[in-house]
Amino acid sequence: MSAADIWIVDLALSPDQLDLCEAVLGADERDRAGRFLRPADRARYRASHAALRLILGESLGIAPLVIRLEAGAAGKPELAGSARGALDFNLSHSGGRALIGLARGAAIGVDVEEIRPLSDALRIARSHFAPDEAAALAASLPNDIETAFFGLWTRKEAVVKAMGTGLSLPLDRFSVSVPPARPRLLRMARGVAWTLADIACGPDYAATVAVQSAEAEIAVRHLPPGWPSRLR
């Protein structure tokens, strides 16, 4: 059995706190943050990536600033340098929340989405998801379709991110359960055991963690207010 730690992060920070976040980012992270046109998007990117460095650093006993990250063979970020292979991690952020997952000895993926109006949820599901998923979503009550869609989306994205396959794994090649059913992987060509769990990030968010291990233990934690002060 594997264990996974999931961290929920509030991305609403003061300018001084964002300066602390900026100071620990790598050059490539600062460059990417600078490409966002909207100031809110730049701030959330800086905050979420600084939180990732803080959590990784405290888990490994390494200063956030000196953590080295690189893209793996399939593009999934991973630890480099002396910490290479120490653990698997994943980051997702949407709106004012970030979700960070850490696991040892197993691949992990996380996804969080801010629930928002979506008039074409069924069309998107029928075009991109597996037929059984689209049918289950269509059977939802009209007022529940948007919430169910984003829950379904995060379940699928968490699996894809754990595998690190990106767009090379079409979303209709595997299926997961549709909320309000408990999160489960229903069908996938590869015979690998998975643990999926919903993460409560607030009433306006859907979030899922996927761990490539049977019956993984999931521990959910929150970064407390003022966490950027720990970056010093």
Defining traits:
Ribosomal Protein L22, Chain A, 11 strands, four-stranded mixed beta sheet, single chain, 232 residues, alpha+beta, three-stranded antiparallel beta sheet
Please specify the SSE layout and strand pairing.
Layout lengths: L2 E8 L4 H10 L2 H8 L4 H22 L8 E3 L5 E3 L8 E7 L2 E7 L4 E7 L6 H8 L2 H8 L6 H19 L11 E2 L8 E3 L7 E4 L6 E7 L5 E6 L10
Parallel strand pairs: 1-11
Antiparallel strand pairs: 1-5, 2-3, 4-5, 6-10, 7-8, 9-10
Describe this structure in words.
With 232 residues, the protein is an alpha+beta fold. It has helices at residues 15-24, 27-34, 39-60, 121-128, 131-138, 145-163, and strands at 3-10, 69-71, 77-79, 88-94, 97-103, 108-114, 175-176, 185-187, 195-198, 205-211, 217-222. The strands form four sheets. The protein has a four-stranded mixed β-sheet, with helices on one face. A three-stranded antiparallel β-sheet has the order 6-10-9, covered by helices on one side. A hairpin with a 6-residue loop joins β9 and β10. The chain starts with a strand and ends in a 10-residue tail after the last strand.
